[in-house]
Specification:
- The chain is α+β, with helices and mostly antiparallel strands.
- It has 2 domains: 179 residues, Ribosomal Protein S5, domain 2 (2-Layer Sandwich), CATH 3.30.230.10; 118 residues, GHMP kinase, C-terminal domain (Alpha-Beta Plaits, 2-Layer Sandwich), CATH 3.30.70.
- It has 9 helices and 11 strands.
- Strands 1, 2, 3, 4, 5, 6 and 7 form a 7-stranded mixed sheet that branches. A 4-stranded antiparallel sheet has the order 9-10-8-11.
- The longest helix has 16 residues.
Length: 310
């Protein structure tokens, strides 16, 4: 189950509707996230790792269309993505349906417009699942409370609960499932993000193989993100996955270096990769950085607070 640090405070769940009234069918964006720093603190007895990171919801998004139907079904714009019961969207909707009493449960028809790259450390699948949980709850009038939605989200994956939170910025600890909402960082005010995803696949096993846990700097990610400048971020804010993955995939290191050379005040890999992002003070510089990327790199540019305002 999701735990919020700081005790049993009210769980603030963002309103995942568009400004227009909720209706059938409904189309809702499912925004990605990036990690502002990530430290691996220690290996746990259960085989997982304790970590510390700050999640930031961004404006690059998938889109979910949902409408009531006789039975549950799904289509997707990406032909290589499964649309059966193994898909997180289908599992999320089924979890809501299972909470509705009675044998004659309604169905839903889903369509996923997949704009986000797969396996890039941006939480696209988790965001899709969170949107499906919230939208199915409203469209079917299931009446699930915020705590119930968060419990279902945590059962689907460690990153899913973050996408239900208001604000779009949160400290993640434990396996990432212990969340504390944070204010939007002062260092990102009136800045622009460039997110670039090269055709590099990094498995979770590969990402953790080269990790050497170190808890000596515990608490520094939160402090730096909350109080630091971009220059201080670049000097001291660390993603522990970078060093060994950059050695294994020099293209990622070159991509980060290229964003910094293009004028980014801070650049880093998101999560366990392969997305790399840069923070720019000026929109024109961000656009020039995008234009300088190789053609086979998928990229997005937008205001740093774009996902927070969604």
């Amino acid at each position: 189950m999701l735990r919020l640090s700081g005790g049993p405070a009210r769980i603030a769940v963002r309103d995942m509707r568009r400004p227009t009234p909720f209706h059938d069918p409904v189309t809702i964006p499912a925004p990605a996230k990036i990690n502002l720093g990530l430290r691996i603190l220690r290996k746990r007895p259960d085989g997982f790792h304790d970590l510390e990171t700050v999640f930031l919801r961004i404006g690059w998004a998938d889109e979910i269309r949902m409408e009531t139907a006789a039975e549950l079904s799904m289509t997707c714009s990406a032909p290589n993505l499964p649309v059966d019961g193994s898909n997180l969207c289908m599992r999320a909707v089924q979890a809501v349906l299972d909470e509705i009493p009675g044998e004659q449960r309604p169905g839903l028809r889903l369509h996923l417009l997949k704009n986000l790259p797969f396996g890039a450390g941006m939480g696209g699948g988790s965001s899709d699942a969170a949107v499906c949980l919230s939208a199915a709850n409203r469209l079917l009038d299931a009446g699930l409370a915020a705590a119930q939605l968060h419990s279902l989200a945590a059962s689907l994956g460690s990153d899913v609960p973050f996408f239900l939170l208001e604000g779009g910025v949160a400290l993640g600890t434990g396996r990432g499932e212990i969340l504390e909402p944070l204010p939007f960082p002062a260092a990102l005010q009136e800045t622009w993000l460039v997110v670039a995803v090269p055709p590099v696949h990094i498995s979770t096993a590969e990402a953790y193989t080269g990790i050497r846990p170190d808890a000596s700097g515990e608490g520094t990610v939160r402090t730096l993100v909350s109080d630091g400048t971009l220059a201080e971020w670049q000097e001291s804010l660390i993603n522990d996955f970078e060093q060994h993955l950059f050695d294994a995939h020099p293209r990622l290191a070159a991509l980060k270096a290229g964003l910094l050379e293009a004028g980014a005040g801070y650049a880093a890999m998101s999560g366990s990769g392969s997305a790399v992002f840069g923070v720019f003070m000026h929109h024109d510089d961000a656009l020039r950085a995008i234009q300088a990327l190789d053609e086979n790199i998928r990229a997005w540019v937008g205001p740093s607070d774009g996902g927070v305002r969604m």
